[in-house]
Amino acid sequence: MQTNTLATPTPQKTLIRLGTLASMLDLSRSGFDKLRLRDPSFPVPIKDGETRQAAVFFVAAEVESWLKAKMAQREQGAI
Prior knowledge:
79 residues, alpha+beta, 3 helices, globular
Protein backbone atom coordinates (compact mmCIF):
# COMPACT_ATOMS: atom_id res chain seq x y z
CA MET A 1 0.00 0.00 0.00
CA GLN A 2 1.44 3.33 -1.07
CA THR A 3 0.82 6.44 1.03
CA ASN A 4 0.22 9.85 -0.44
CA THR A 5 2.89 12.19 0.90
CA LEU A 6 0.95 15.24 -0.25
CA ALA A 7 -1.97 14.44 2.05
CA THR A 8 0.06 15.01 5.22
CA PRO A 9 2.19 18.15 5.19
CA THR A 10 5.51 17.95 6.98
CA PRO A 11 6.13 20.58 9.66
CA GLN A 12 8.83 22.19 7.49
CA LYS A 13 6.28 22.75 4.72
CA THR A 14 3.21 23.71 6.74
CA LEU A 15 1.93 27.20 5.95
CA ILE A 16 0.02 29.40 8.38
CA ARG A 17 -2.18 32.27 7.28
CA LEU A 18 -1.36 35.70 8.67
CA GLY A 19 -4.63 35.96 10.63
CA THR A 20 -4.19 32.51 12.15
CA LEU A 21 -0.64 33.30 13.21
CA ALA A 22 -1.72 36.60 14.77
CA SER A 23 -4.36 34.70 16.76
CA MET A 24 -1.84 32.05 17.81
CA LEU A 25 0.44 34.82 19.14
CA ASP A 26 -2.58 36.49 20.82
CA LEU A 27 -2.09 39.68 18.82
CA SER A 28 -4.45 41.90 16.89
CA ARG A 29 -3.69 42.38 13.21
CA SER A 30 -2.16 45.80 13.90
CA GLY A 31 -0.18 44.41 16.84
CA PHE A 32 1.14 41.67 14.59
CA ASP A 33 2.17 44.21 11.95
CA LYS A 34 3.99 46.24 14.62
CA LEU A 35 5.83 43.11 15.79
CA ARG A 36 7.00 42.41 12.23
CA LEU A 37 8.22 45.98 11.79
CA ARG A 38 9.94 46.06 15.20
CA ASP A 39 11.72 42.72 14.87
CA PRO A 40 13.79 42.24 11.70
CA SER A 41 14.46 38.61 12.67
CA PHE A 42 10.77 37.72 12.26
CA PRO A 43 10.26 35.28 9.36
CA VAL A 44 9.51 36.75 5.96
CA PRO A 45 6.04 35.89 4.65
CA ILE A 46 5.15 34.17 1.40
CA LYS A 47 2.62 36.14 -0.63
CA ASP A 48 0.22 34.18 -2.84
CA GLY A 49 0.00 36.55 -5.77
CA GLU A 50 0.97 39.99 -6.94
CA THR A 51 -2.05 41.98 -5.80
CA ARG A 52 -2.30 43.87 -2.54
CA GLN A 53 -5.18 41.61 -1.44
CA ALA A 54 -3.24 38.38 -2.06
CA ALA A 55 -3.16 35.96 0.87
CA VAL A 56 -0.04 35.98 3.05
CA PHE A 57 1.38 32.83 4.60
CA PHE A 58 4.23 32.02 6.98
CA VAL A 59 6.22 28.78 7.12
CA ALA A 60 5.36 27.15 10.45
CA ALA A 61 8.88 25.78 11.00
CA GLU A 62 10.40 29.27 10.52
CA VAL A 63 7.98 30.80 13.03
CA GLU A 64 8.71 28.02 15.51
CA SER A 65 12.47 28.58 15.12
CA TRP A 66 12.01 32.32 15.65
CA LEU A 67 9.96 31.69 18.79
CA LYS A 68 12.54 29.25 20.17
CA ALA A 69 15.29 31.81 19.55
CA LYS A 70 13.28 34.46 21.44
CA MET A 71 12.75 32.06 24.33
CA ALA A 72 16.49 31.28 24.41
CA GLN A 73 17.29 35.02 24.49
CA ARG A 74 14.86 35.44 27.37
CA GLU A 75 16.49 32.62 29.31
CA GLN A 76 19.90 34.26 28.80
CA GLY A 77 18.54 37.57 29.99
CA ALA A 78 19.09 39.29 26.65
CA ILE A 79 15.51 40.48 26.28
